[in-house]
Design a protein that fits this description.
alpha+beta
């Protein structure tokens, strides 16, 4: 593997021109950028010109990760030329969350092959049910395939997001990249660092990723009661208080869910992933130190079983809610990842509206919220 990283700033361009000598069908160009680049796609056009034979993928963010920094209004790019791994890109449109399962199935049909090892998926962040998307993709793939990535962001605005289709930022789109071959090694870490608080409540009415009732009462009303004065800032302030969902109650490991939108008329809340009826829900909160410690655990887990030659590509996808909690300490989370990464690492990523990763090494992939997910990619 050969790796390079570049950063693009408004009014300054690329600090160093993109290294076109890395262009090849086995080159992956990842580009994560601010929402504003939807109408100013010059950096993506320059990448397409420099890498006409490469696979280009990326999305809008709630903050761009570049090395040990978190930036806004930039494009963070990582260029990786693989020695032994083949790549294939797939794209599908999605009108709304109801089409999520089918979108995943469409992507699987484009990518599936006997030697498929891993899939990177980047999705529009405001019109998707991430749980159903992953289910659709998983159901159409042969054997165990590692799926990782995330939902595009738009700061804390939740208005609209974009995903790259080649060099063009597009709303209502999902892009996936398949990695093929037996020389690839992929490690994952997935940790959240949040703690439950308050009473447990059962989801008594829901539809997909829309939550209508908790314990038979309007979900939005109950949530506003807990938030108090902070309720005026919904849905953005909901990032500070996600829900822990235990799909079957009891002591099962929870997944974290955060709100994408609210419906005042229906008194309902729309989440990034499924809110299964009958599951147990409980509010969560976090302290800065616990979030940073969870990032340290995530990179340690991701690197534990991965060894390769010639450096590693490290992709971090963290949640916008974590960034809001950490505030000025956000870069500590990213620095922790880089400190624990292998020598020769190029580190890129973004703050998202949802993270996609296996919860444990070798496990099934799922949608997570308020989580730091780390993927380490090497070749042997």
């Amino acid at each position: 593997m050969r790796l390079q990283a570049r950063n693009y700033q408004l009014n300054k361009g690329w600090g160093t021109p993109p290294p076109g000598d890395l262009d090849s069908p086995q080159t992956l160009v990842l580009a994560f950028g601010a929402k504003s680049f939807e109408t100013a796609p010059a950096p993506f056009e320059s990448l397409a010109a420099a890498f006409p034979h490469s696979i280009i993928a990326g999305c809008s963010t709630a903050g761009e990760i570049a090395g040990n920094c978190v930036n806004d209004e930039t494009v963070s790019a990582a260029i990786t030329r693989f020695n032994h791994t083949r790549l294939r890109r797939a794209v599908t449109a999605i009108a709304d969350a109801n089409g999520s399962l089918r979108a995943g199935e469409n992507l699987a049909a484009q990518l599936n092959a006997a030697d498929l090892t891993a899939v990177l998926i980047l999705s529009d962040g405001t019109c998707v049910n991430g749980t159903a998307l992953v289910q659709g993709l998983t159901s159409g793939l042969t054997g165990h395939v590692s799926i990782f990535g995330g939902l595009a962001g738009d700061g804390s605005n939740f208005a609209s997001t974009w995903v790259l289709d080649g060099a063009v930022p597009k709303r209502n789109h999902i892009c996936a990249v398949g990695f093929y071959g037996d020389r690839l090694r992929v490690g994952h870490g997935c940790e959240h660092g949040w703690s439950d608080f308050g009473p447990e409540r059962r989801i008594t009415r829901s539809q997909g990723n829309v939550l209508h009732e908790l314990d038979g009462k309007p979900a939005l009303d109950l949530y506003k009661t807990y938030l108090g004065e902070l309720a005026a800032g919904l849905p953005g302030n909901a990032l500070l208080y996600p829900l822990a969902i235990r799909r079957h109650g009891g002591d099962t490991t929870p997944v974290v869910r955060t709100i994408l939108g609210i419906d005042e008329a229906q008194k309902s809340m729309t989440f990034a992933g499924d809110m299964p009826q009958g599951a147990i829900a409980r509010l969560m909160r976090a302290k800065d130190d616990s979030l940073i410690e969870s990032a340290s655990t995530a990179i340690a887990t991701a690197t534990r079983d991965v060894a390769g030659n010639g450096g590693a590509l490290v992709i971090s996808v963290s949640c916008v809610g974590r960034r809001l909690v950490l505030g000025e300490r956000t870069e500590e989370e990213v620095e922790t990842i880089l400190d624990g990464a292998p020598a020769g690492t190029q580190h890129v990523g973004f703050y998202s509206y949802g993270e996609i990763s296996p919860a444990i090494s070798g496990g099934a992939s799922d949608l997570h919220n308020q989580t730091m997910t780390v993927t380490v990619i090497t070749e042997v």
